[in-house]
Amino acid sequence: MMIINSILNRYIFRELFAPFVVTLLFFTFVFLMAQMLKITNLIVNYNVDLFSILKILVLSTPFFFMFVVPMSVMMAILLTFLKMSSDNEIIAMKTSGLSLYRLLPPVFLFCLGGYLLTFFMSAYGAPNAEQAIRDLTLKVFSQNLDIGLKARTFNDSFKDVMLYINDIDMKNKLLIDVFIEDKRKKDLVTTVVAPKGKLFTAEEDLVYHLRLFDGRINQVQLENRSANSTTFETYDIRLDLKSALATSETPTKRWKEMTLPELHEFMENSGDHWQMNNMLVRFHKILAMPFACFALGILAVPLGIQSKSERPSLGLLVGLVFFLIYYLLLSAGHVLGESGRVSAPWAMWAPNVVMGLLGVCLLVGSARERHFRIAAPIYRLWHMMSRMGGKPS
User: N- or C-end of the chain: fewer Cβ atoms within 10 A?
Assistant: First the structure.
């Protein structure tokens, strides 16, 4: 029996790898495709080189893997047990005296591998990649200032200058409805408003000139509390990016770019608690997300066994629905945790607890030959849509 069980464990473990690799590549491709509109915009409108685009794509994968790996682990287990059930292998194993629980060791080992990969990506890979993306974006930004200017967003990258643009005409490279607050002169606040403007590159590196047309300048002297206003046909303002880049190259990290040990140390030593809820949510999210591999993996076993009469495509649909439920619970917990309505540990760990308990209940029921048909509404909806579309069910 021990030899049979060992052979069975190796067989199940090998069967899990192929669907895992396929689903991992597929979902990674889907996540990357979501970035294609932004990437196309960078290539077409800003002439960003292909090498920088590829670096951005590669650096984005650790963040995607935080979600893709647990999803792929779940799908691999679900499809493997769905295939084994459809081929009557599960029935044959039960007939030979093996209980369903004897099939779990390779599943737990596979979930452990997914857990380690997800933990590494969330605790170390994603923070370092996010910092690398920010550094790369600043370099691209320094080569083409238009990339960093966003419509309807206050831009404070320039020292003592606040820039707001209502819209950007990409075809003609015009800035529409420009507002500037300039505090570079002591005791003098200058605000400039113009219906349109245009950026020009100066001969000096990282220096730009913003030419405004048909606008108004308002100046307030803080010392003697006087104000004056003038109109202009053209007005040039100098924007120096060197100070912005010098500030960004300081060793201080944003808390979203900190690895797990750095974040823990920062929370213990920081005297500023106004963002403590956000940091606690991120800290527990890093710890909780990898455990989704176990919670969703255990849930996938009974889902695969109880869906043996359905096609693999429907099994994939069921897995996607339950992962969507998990993601919605995680998103709700994220919002509630940051707002302080729910403590950060409860907010981030609740989705794992809910899915894990559901998986254990279904697993125990499947081991006792009970059929809950929890996925039946999904199948009925699919068959109804198939009949309405004239497709065979």
Answer: N
